[in-house]
Specification:
Length: 336
């Protein structure tokens, strides 16, 4: 299944790559969240020559609702659900590799490595940043060097029965719904296998603003997951917040204490130097801007994370208070 919303630039590339799979016993369902571009028309035209391709409405618009909707509509004979992203193209043995991995390991879910690739200049810079440790913090599904059981990865295949038993995606999440689901899968006794043999290519955002917005929303989503499940953030999630704090404190103190700018300037220099090194290695001048992309990704993720903490702490605190009976209700419930 493919969640889609205004994906006219890449939807056909995604669909075509899935139609060229070595395994053919599957259907492709595009769940459109109300596209205003040519996404729906392109899929409808492709459906005329491909009976395995279907298009449905996703009134909830969000990816989480799209996947849940397809899981609800799946025929009783369906055992596996594969989530495909419209921004991604898939190798010909993708489905076959996922099925082989789940049969060999008995995993509840199979996730895959993700390589970011770019076409225009800014996309190549963003791709280089996202593929480097400076941009991905060493996430295993971004490195994808070996197959293993993991806590989280880029979603691909689910055992449909287990997906339904844990409640599917939490539709209150617009971002980070994948990590939040992985946590519940493992908490319910499921296992997640990362297969290094089915890496996929992902197209990054095409402008600094859309990249910044993406990472701001990702930061908010991770904050919501941490609050919902009372998790302890990992070091790679804390470091961007520390860096953002250095920028805020340094800029605020600069009129009086010029040394306050040392840490932000040092961070900026390190990122730009890292980008210059990547650009030199790639022999691509566009890639030298990957350091600036890394700065955008880190600072806006941290800003989203901090605002998410403040926002969702209030939300979940209010829900908790509503769920706890008042003292008067407790006294009334006591036996006389």
């Amino acid at each position: 299944m493919i969640p889609a919303l205004n994906e006219e630039e890449c939807i056909l590339g995604c669909v075509d790559s899935l139609l060229r799979q070595t395994t053919t016993d599957f259907e492709i369902i595009v769940a459109d969240g109300g596209s205003t571009d040519r996404t729906r028309a392109l899929v409808a035209t492709a459906m005329e020559s491909e009976p395995r391709l279907h298009l449905i409405e996703n009134p909830g618009r969000l990816q989480s609702r799209a996947v849940n909707l397809v899981a609800e509509l799946a025929a009783p004979r369906v055992k596996w659900l594969i989530r495909a992203d419209a921004h991604t193209t898939y190798p010909p043995n993708f489905v076959e590799t996922l099925l082989a991995a789940v049969q060999q390991t008995g995993a509840t879910s199979v996730v895959v490595p993700m390589r970011t690739v770019g076409h225009d200049c800014f996309q190549r810079a963003a791709a280089a940043a996202q593929n480097s440790r400076l941009g991905n913090g060493g996430s295993l599904h971004r490195l994808g060097s070996s197959s293993r059981f993991v806590d989280h990865g880029h979603h691909a295949l689910f055992q449909l029965g287990h997906f339904r038993r844990v409640g599917g995606y939490d539709e209150a999440f617009s971002h980070n719904e994948d990590f939040e689901l992985d946590y519940r899968i493992r908490k319910a006794g499921g296992t997640i296998w990362l297969t290094a043999h089915a890496a996929v290519d992902y197209l990054p955002r095409r402008s600094p603003w859309t990249l910044a917005r993406q990472y701001f929303l990702h930061g908010q989503g991770r904050a919501r997951t941490i609050i919902k499940h009372a998790l302890i953030p990992k070091i790679r999630q804390v470091l961007p917040v520390v860096v953002l704090g250095c920028y805020v404190v340094g800029i605020g103190a600069s009129p009086w204490v010029h040394a306050g700018l040392l840490l932000p300037v040092a961070h900026l220099v390190i990122c730009l130097a890292w980008g210059a090194m990547l650009g030199w290695r790639a022999r691509d001048w566009c890639v030298t801007a990957s350091g600036l992309c890394a700065v955008i990704m880190q600072l806006f993720w941290a800003a989203g994370f901090c605002t998410g903490l403040l926002r969702y702490l209030r939300t979940y605190r209010s829900e908790l208070l509503r769920s706890v009976p008042s003292n008067a209700e407790n006294r009334a419930a006591e036996p006389s």
